[in-house]
Amino acid sequence: MLGRWIRFFFAIAIGAAAGLAYGWLLAPTKQVNTQPENLRIDYRSDVVLMVAEAYHADHNLASAITRIALLGNAQPANTIQQAILFAERQGYSDIDLQMMHELLAAVEELTPLITTPVP
Amino acid sequence: MKQSRGSLYLLTGFILGLGLGLIYSLFIQPVNYTDIAPSMLDAAAKDRYRALIAIAYNADQDLVRARARLALLNDDDPFRALAEQAQRWLAEGKSEEEARALGLLAASLAQAQATILAPPTSNIPATLPVEAETSSLTATDTTVPPTPNSEGIVAPAEGVNPNPTPLINPSPSPQVTPTIALRLQLSKRESVCDPTRGQSLIQVYTWDANGAEVPGVELVINWQGGENHFFTGLKPEMGAGYADFSMTPGITYTLRLASGGEPVMNLSTPACTTSSGEKYWGNWVLEFSPP
Questions:
Q1: Among A12, B122, B229, B258, whose CB has the most other CB atoms within 10 angstroms?
Q2: Which residues contact B83 (CB under 8 A, 6 or more apart)?
Q3: B184 close to B257: Cβ distance less than 8 angstroms
Q4: Strand bridging mode B242-246 / B271-273
Q5: Which of A9, A11, A42 sits opposite B144 (nearest CB)?
Q6: Is-contact B257 B248, C-beta < 8 A?
Q7: What digits encode the pLDDT tens for the residues A8-43?
Q8: pTM of the prediction?
Q9: What DSSP character marks residue B237?
Q10: Residue A101 and residue A80: Cα distance in Å, rounded?
Q11: How far is CA A51 from CA A103, B22, B86, in A?
Q12: Residue B159 scores a pLDDT above 80
């Protein structure tokens, strides 16, 4: 009788594993958090570059900050700085980097970046 | 019979487990994607991303880059997506600047497409350096963002994207002739009776001094208690300089160019009659060209 219960729970476990595999691997639900803040770093950097291009043309800092907020609630300066680090690592063109630095400088002037002291 | 009962309880257990697994993986703890591509964004986020592409294009006039960025969204028809969003945002009263940028980018895409498709003619100069645009985009993979490095090579993020990298050379940037600043005035106003048309339209055509159609011209239409903005070039099948507005019988409209100039007044649905005496509503055809 005990062996029967063990086999029963074993069957449940196999079924559960199959269900999880289906839901997580084979056909994950579309009901997921598909917001721009989850974009991969290279796409995030490109978003920052787009904002920087627009800012370079219109110098509208309010619009730029609103657009950066597309990437989440982190401090805009932090978001831009991460994008710049990535851009520098990946060798973006000087013009693109210049525009991103220009945007960073303007945003930092408004909201100074809080840096964690390194021991 | 006893043997059958023996396998049935195992099947019951499996089904029970399967159901629990599905409920958990699909509803309780669904897959949470991180490091996603723009094509995986939801519709509203895609709209915001598309608007940002248009705003950036408006700033740098780099159509190659804008196209590569649009490709990341995997729209079936990027032009249509832009045009529809521009119209929708105007109708919903969202940022006029962004709606205008969307319209301009759609018009630029239409113009570039028309330039590629049009046979060479002697009197219409090619305004787009199409060769630069097509030759600089050497791969069609759309899984990496179109931001090039100083050598014009797009590199994926470290360790996250093993896909082949397209080569995109950002310079020289193809420049679309700025059409908004062009001074245009009404050169033709005509009511047209066409019984084959199902609705009464104000049809606008815009031409430059060389006789080429002008896309991206913003038009403002007013009527008692209402106003709407629309752009030429959002219906490329009718021509890059074409736009139309559907009239409601009994309402009188005034149309003007957003860039200024004399308004075209008293536009109401013209009454037409077929040869058999049946009445229907006609269209207005308005043509604008440089003075």
A1: A12
A2: B102, B103, B106, B234, B235
A3: yes
A4: unpaired
A5: A42
A6: no
A7: 899 999 999 999 898 888 877 655 557 888 899 999
A8: 0.57
A9: G
A10: 8
A11: 8, 41, 19
A12: no
